[in-house]
What we know:
The chain is globular, with a radius of gyration of 28 Å. The protein has 22 helices and 19 strands. The protein has three domains: 7-212, Maf protein; 261-343, Arc Repressor Mutant, subunit A (Orthogonal Bundle); 418-588, 3-Layer(aba) Sandwich (Rossmann fold). The N and C termini lie far apart (58 Å). By secondary structure, it is an alpha/beta fold. A hairpin with a 6-residue loop joins strand 18 (569-575) and strand 19. Bound molecules: S-adenosylmethionine. Residues 388, 406, 409-410, 433-435, 439, 456-457, 460, 482-484, 497-499, 502 line the site of S-adenosylmethionine. It holds the Pfam family Methyltransf_2. Residues 260-341 form the O-methyltransferase dimerisation domain.
Amino acid sequence: xxxxxxxxxxxGKLVVLASASPRRLEILRNAGLRFExxxxxxxxxxxxxxxxxxxxxxVETAKQKALxxxxxxxxxxxxxxxxxxxxxxxxxxxxxxxEKPVDKHDAYRMLSSLSGKExxxxxxxxxxxxxxxxxxxxxxxxIDFYEETKVKFxxxxxxxxxxxxxxxEPMDKAGGYGIQALGGMLVEYVHGDFLNVVGFPLNHFCxxxxxxxxxxxxxxxxxxxxxxxxxxxxxxxxxxxxxxxxLELKNQDLQQITALMDGFKAxxxxxxxxxxxxxDLLHSRPRLDAAQVAQEIKAxxxxxxCLLEACVSLGLLKSKERTLQKPVYENTDLAMRxxxxxxxxxxxxxxxxxxxxxxxxxxxLESAVREGTNQHExxxxxxxxxxxxxxxxxxQEVKLRFMNAMHSIAKVTGKAxxxxxxxxxxxxxxxxxxxxxxxxxxxTKAHPGLSVTVFDLPAVVEMSEHFHPLQKDNRVSxxxxxxxxxELPKADLYILARILHDWPDEKVHILLRKIADACxxxxxxxxxxxxxxxxxxxxxxxxxQALSMSEGKQRSATExxxxxxxxxxxxxxxxxxxxxxxxxxCIKV
Length: 589
Ligand SMILES: C[S@@+](CC[C@H](N)C(=O)[O-])C[C@H]1O[C@@H](n2cnc3c(N)ncnc32)[C@H](O)[C@@H]1O
């Protein structure tokens, strides 16, 4: 057990637990740790919408709790601790973060949302190491981590729920239950560290301490420190501990690197099968063998066989062996849902765009990186300053393909964007660059009191009706124009979905100024884009897209909110939807 050597390293040090939770106290006491309890004054009021994943919220809260105590003690308690431990436990279900219930009804809301379902319990932990310097300043080093445990609740009847709530147990517990007492009766199974659900991931904590005290404290070359915050003469620094260089050949690492090297082959196999309508064919006529498919798609039997087998290995097709005969093929569930061209969430249009436009651009990636410009001329023989007007809308075929691509993504992501915020106060919206209107239809579906005007270039608007042959909604209308030059339709909510990333800052400012001029105070502006993490380290989908983008750039939620602020909008809410696009609702002040 790693704990004992760590405990001996801690003897004689002032260890402080920045939490009043009796359960955390008991877990650490039972482990033999000696510490003082100084509950943190940090209020758990961080805006959850600003965090991409729930664990980031728990870790940030744990950090703030621990740092508050570490900074307060030298002044209020007149002693500097050696280590401060902060922790925060949250429960997440269906994308919601549940903390401690505020009253019985809140406890009821939480527990009924957990009934019969699996949920996750995250504890974020922060360990602050305090080093007093000669001039009485204190250096803080911060190490943080989190642990996730999955818990499944049984179906809870109303009687059971209220009996449990009336026991009083839920009130001071994240998610409204305590697994170590009566709440244990509600639980069907636990996957992961049980103590994490109680409130503290002891095992992970011990491993982390072991890493700090037994592996890296003495070897400075395994430790890199960087100053993060400078506050009242004290410094907050965070250390990242790096394991010794790993020269072993691990199969898992090899698989990771192979998947990256082969990624383009998988994409191209998918594009080719989609282009040759393999998924449509196997939908209308399942269980064909390779020769039959080859005949239908007018291709060689040998090539078709290889393509079908590759698609099986990628999880896009299933092959069924028939005794003494050639295998037959059919679509997997994934292909049925996303690859058939007539599926409600078909990505067929987007795949065609990737194959015909993005792929040629990526084949010139090296020049794009060297020159820092778009590669339309090399890929398509045309210079394009405005990618829409000069490239996509020059030919009817390319225009329709682009519109199909936008339409398919908007149908997949539209509902998540349209329902990201309460928009009931708005009656009229204008979707600028709204293309086929697919997003607008999702907004009217989600908000019965809202009418949406789709504003797009004339070349697009003239084709938009083809995309909604059966949908007649007189709350969606189309206006043709250029959003950089023409007057914008009046609305109390403007929508910019996948628009701003296409343009450099100067053009973004022109567009935002026009929107700001059209808005009165209280008007809304909903931005939907892939928001990069604040350190620009993820998501790779956004960063990879930037490699083939023309003049624009990908931005983080903060970067977008600063752009908007300069035009008199405040970013009211940010939502990471887990779908293709994130969303931010801003209000004109
Ligand atoms: C990347 S697409 C996004 C489409 C749509 N908002 C969505 O999320 O599905 C960009 C859209 O902006 C439109 N657009 C480009 N330049 C424009 C301009 N100057 N005025 C109006 N619309 C424009 C394009 O025609 C295209 O429909």
